[in-house]
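Input/output pair, single chain:
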Amino acid sequence: MTRPKKAVPPALQPGRRPSSPGFLLLLALMWIGSGVVALVALHASWRLVPGIVFVGIGLLFLRGAAATVVRRSEPRP
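Output:
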């Protein structure tokens, strides 16, 4: 005598949910704004270093926000 097979639910994606695009956009704008302030307000000769780093971090957050928007707009199987 065999038991009937139970329907196996589809595997869920492990890990936590992605951050909201609005929050990532806010972080990106804050980092880019900090980079602009560092480029304009600092008077040392090395002001380019923190300015470029801050803007680069902001661009990474901006890329993350865009990826989240694209991922959420894709149709789910």
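The chain has a mean pLDDT of 85. The helical segments are 21-41, 48-73.
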